[in-house]
Design a protein that fits this description.
- By secondary structure, the chain is α+β, with helices and mostly antiparallel strands.
- Helix 3 packs across helix 4.
- The chain starts with a strand and ends in a 34-residue tail after the last strand.
- The chain contains eight helices and 22 strands.
């Protein structure tokens, strides 16, 4: 069983009378890769800064190993941080950049005062150990400006880890990298975390990063935690419309829970796997675009009109109009704009959620994302027979 390392208890924070953290409660386990995920301004970076000691909460407590550390300065916490800007020293080579923190350390002498430096042999051993961990062995004499962005990031991580902290904080460290390198570094970061065996707390607004690397994802919005869970739980069992929309693409439709395992949409009843709702309770229904099958009209549970088609390489993104509410379908089958199609959804492709303050705000693709907004829209004619 994992051991709790950090607990945030009832944290509140405000800037200029604007609430940034609203009574936030969270615990983080030892050796866990935990990601704080959410849009800009949701409070994730403020939470990270409070853990690191760079910001003091207006109220609430930060506990480390059960001990309150609100007043402990950053350099005395067993925590290091890697920021988006790596702040490497250009006049020092890779070895000396990583060794910098070790050279600043002092050991107590016979009188108990911190006067002695770490032995050079130990510094070299620990730096070489970190170079091995971040796959930069042989780069110790390389100049910083001769490294790629990904290599510079690894140097920054090694410099943070060489002091052997119990926790590494990472504030959107992949933001400056190009797409391919960012994907490669997602795998590399997870490998490093597993190899060194310490807690990583990662901040990002990128859902793919969170899903790829995390043991636990904490989804935040407006200073509050919306859901905590594994990547699989967050994606497959979102708690509300905000989480469903933020993690992946989602069609979110008004529904009525007729009874356990049976939900009604568009006047039709659909078998599902969810239960625990009141009979005829209004609900939000989440259907992921990849869980929808296109079938001939006569075989469809619903029928609609294709209004947009975008080729994405491995799939088509198809927008389908059901009486003015537009769904996204991701499929390898092409359907032309203007085509009448039927759709079928298996019970395990339907996820039912309680109504929330976010209900009605997400899930309709009538307002296209940037990748669709240059496309011509073909509207269905009145009386076209779409399901209602």
């Amino acid at each position: 069983m994992s051991k709790e390392l950090i607990r945030l208890r009832d944290l509140c924070m405000a800037y200029d009378d604007e609430l940034v953290l609203d009574h936030l409660n969270l615990y983080i386990n030892d050796k866990e890769f935990l990601t704080l995920l959410g849009p800009s301004g949701c409070g994730k970076t403020t939470t990270l800064r409070i853990i690191g000691g760079f910001t003091t909460p207006a109220s609430g407590d930060v506990l480390f190993g059960g001990v309150r550390i609100n007043d402990v300065p950053p350099h005395k916490r067993q925590i290091n941080t890697v920021f988006q800007k790596y702040a490497l020293f250009p006049h020092l080579n890779v070895f000396e950049n990583i060794a910098f923190g070790l050279r600043m350390q002092r050991l107590p002498d016979a009188s108990g005062k911190r006067r002695n430096r770490l032995p050079e042999e130990e510094i070299r051993s620990r730096v070489m150990e970190m170079l091995e961990a971040v796959s930069l062995k042989g780069f110790e004499n390389r100049r910083i400006d001769a490294l790629s962005g990904g290599q510079q990031q690894r140097v920054a991580i090694a410099r943070a880890l060489v002091n052997r902290p119990k926790v590494l904080l990472l504030d959107e460290p992949l933001g400056a990298l190009d797409l391919k390198l960012r994907k490669d570094m997602q795998i590399e970061l997870k490998r490093i975390q597993q190899q060194v065996g310490i807690t990583f707390i990662y901040v990002t607004h990128d859902q793919e990063e969170a899903l790829t690397m995390s043991d636990t994802i904490v989804v935040m919005d407006k200073g509050s935690i919306q859901q905590i869970g594994t990547p699989e739980d967050i994606y497959n069992e979102p708690k509300n419309a905000f989480v469903a929309d933020f993690i992946g693409e989602s069609n979110i439709i008004d529904g009525l829970m007729v009874r356990d395992h049976l939900v009604q949409m568009y006047g039709r009843q659909f078998p599902c796997l969810d239960g625990g709702f009141a009979e005829n309770e209004p609900v939000d229904v989440v259907i992921r675009p990849e869980d929808i099958d296109i079938v001939p009209v006569e075989q469809g549970q619903l029928t609609g009109t294709v209004t947009n088609v975008t080729f994405k390489g491995m799939q088509y993104d198809i927008i389908v109009d059901f009486r003015g509410f537009k769904w996204l379908i991701q499929t390898t089958d092409h359907s032309p704009v203007g085509a009448r199609i039927g759709i079928k959804i298996d019970p395990d492709g339907i996820h039912v959620m309680k109504k929330s303050p976010y209900s009605g705000m997400f899930g309709d693709y009538s307002s296209f994302s940037d990748e669709y907004d240059e496309l011509d829209v073909v509207e269905p004619e009145e009386g076209s027979g779409d399901e209602s």
